[in-house]
Amino acid sequence: MNRVNVTRSSMPPIQEYFNEIEPLWESHWLTNAGAIHQKLENALKEYLGVENISLFVNGHSALEVLLGAYRLQSGEKNKIITTPFSFSSTTHAIVRSGFIPVFADIRLDDFTLDPVSVESLIDETVFAVLPVHVYGNLAGVDALQSIGEKYGAKVIYDAAHAFGVRKGDKSSASFGDASMFSFHATKVFNTIEGGAIVYKDPSLRKPLESLKNFGITSAESVEFVGGNAKMNEFCAAMGICNLKHVDEEIQKRAKVEARYRERLGSCDGIYMAPVQAGVASNHAYMPVLFEETFPFTRDDVYESLLRIGVASRKYFYPLINDYECYRGDYSSRQTPVAKYVADRILTLPMYADLGIETVDAICDCILG
Ligand SMILES: *Cc1c(COP(=O)(O)O)cnc(C)c1O
């Protein structure tokens, strides 16, 4: 079998990309909110069903700029409740923008932040709750919204995994005060590198737009201490092309997931989170939990797959509250469900063009 990676970046037919970037040789306008950037913003507003969006060089910078903008107005409220079961970016953005993270536990149903755990930790020093839509599973958006309203905390989603996910007639971009999307090469929708913030309060526009461009607010005024986090025209062009194919890609991913579930779903010792009722997933990842009754451990399975040339990923392991840089202040002992999952989880190869025969070979290897 040829080497199989855990993911493979989506790319449009090359001619479509050529057509999109060709005008740049006329305009010589390569970055700083050019015509293609504007076109992608409009296309994304339409696709995600939002009024306010700001594009960024990557998802992490987007989140850091958003939180930085909020920190300017958060005063004494300096804590953000979040999940340790995420990519490093989520907590790093909180800390790097001057907030203090507080880790709540997750729930086994969908690996997202447990609203009960959030409510047990919230007090008047908490500025926001920052849940992650893990693997494209939506967090408990209704319960989290009620908690936010009850305690006067913002709800900000890390929606890096949730592009194209829908709940009934609502887009994943419609929940909370704001959401961050990542358009990294490995995500369901990519702009090579890129990201976006969607937000409800129009007054965020000024700080977001200027913080990503050195804090500049007009030709002769600089009102904020900003960095540089702008998306360029070549990345925006990739986004315009990929967006045209994303629904078809999601449908292909659904077929891959269906096959994995068929082969592994009823196997003793393998736990797969149930499909969320009323949610149309984007099938971003293929997480599988290897529990004690399975004859092999997660690490055994990871190694056997490597031996046949298949790369899986211990995602997310280790937990963020066990990272060297946060040790001493935090510990995974405080989040036992997240610890349980992180020690047993493996994400299997998942991408639109992954062949069913390859999925079968992977499952044969796992089942031994
Ligand atoms: C990918 C990812 C990010 C960061 O996005 P980049 O675009 O790579 O900067 C943040 N959070 C989660 C959960 C992610 O998966």
Offer a quick outline of the entry.
The chain is α/β, with parallel strands linked by helices. Helix content is 37%, strand content 15%.
Task: Walk me through the structure.
There is one protein chain. The protein has 368 residues and is α/β, with parallel strands linked by helices. 37% of the residues lie in helices and 15% in strands. The chain has helices spanning 14-21, 24-27, 35-48, 59-74, 88-96, 115-121, 141-151, 205-211, 233-243, 246-264, 298-307, 336-344, 356-367; strands at residues 53-56, 79-82, 100-103, 126-130, 154-158, 166-167, 170-171, 178-182, 195-199, 216-218, 221-222, 270-271, 279-280, 286-290, 345-348. The strands form four sheets. The chain has a seven-stranded mixed beta sheet, sandwiched between helices. Helix 5 links the parallel strand 2 and strand 3. Helix 1 (14-21) packs across helix 9, helix 3 (35-48) packs parallel to helix 9 (233-243) and helix 10 packs parallel to helix 13 (356-367). The mean pLDDT is 97. The chain binds pyridoxal-5'-phosphate (PLP).
